[in-house]
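Collaborator request, handled under Task 6.
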Amino acid sequence: MTEPEQSASPIRVLVIEDDPGDADLLHEMLSEVQSAAFQVERAATLQAGLARLAKGGIDVVLTDLGLPDSQGLETFAKVHEHAPEIPVIMLTGLDDDTVALQAVRNGAQDYLVKGQADSKTLSRVLRYAMERHETQMVLRNLSLLDELTGLYNRRGFLSLADHHLKLAARTQRGLVLLMVDVDHMKQINDTFGHQEGDLALVKTAKVLRDTFRSSDIIARIGGDEFAVIAVEAHGDEADMLKARLQEHLAICNTQGALRWRLSLSVGAVAFVSHSGLSLERLMAQVDAALYEEKRSKR
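Structure tokens returned to the collaborator:
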């Protein structure tokens, strides 16, 4: 197997390691690599590492299994939960390789035993980990995306929504779940044909993308049903989000020569971290809110 080609931009590595000597050694080893450029940052605790990851700009994580505020598999689990899009490599002592192997089975890209890797090996492990992770993410996304709209499908939405719900409960942050339904979809299909019906779905997806942030979760969960998780949004923002959606919908209806007018019904429910509501309960509540809005239009 040949090594990956050198990247034009530096590879940004976050080392989560409480031992200054081990961290300095890793930094020194990466600075010796001639085939690639690395930018190394260090965090001495898991919490400091998670805070750095939240700021973005990290390509790969090297983390010790044993940190002052986290031990063993919990360390990997928390890093992966906070930044699933970033590959993680575990650092382990001689007597911890069993735990490190379990971390790899749970999703870590690789592990290194401290003191047993030179600069060339370390560089190769980092770059292969990034390539494997990118491939895995592409394959995963293919199974989680709706082919017509490019949004998440129901499977992708449920997986990500459950993750964000648990994260919101743990971090004491709120979120807003919205359910969106295309009005008169059957009439559009019956009158203008299914090609126009597909166009209505594509237009709805664009309205949703224009309304919400890239960090929010937007999905087509069924025929003409869409769902959105507005992350870190508070309950009093639900009405504002609905109003903003209607503004972008109005703009959409002034663009192009459509033979029909796109109309959307929206239900919204806020998740409060101390409520303990499950995703199923929350979706039942937002379904009821959506039904009430559709009923009021009749």
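The cover message to the collaborator said: "The longest helix spans residues 119-144. The first strand starts at residue 11 and ends at 16. Please let us know whether this matches your experimental observations."
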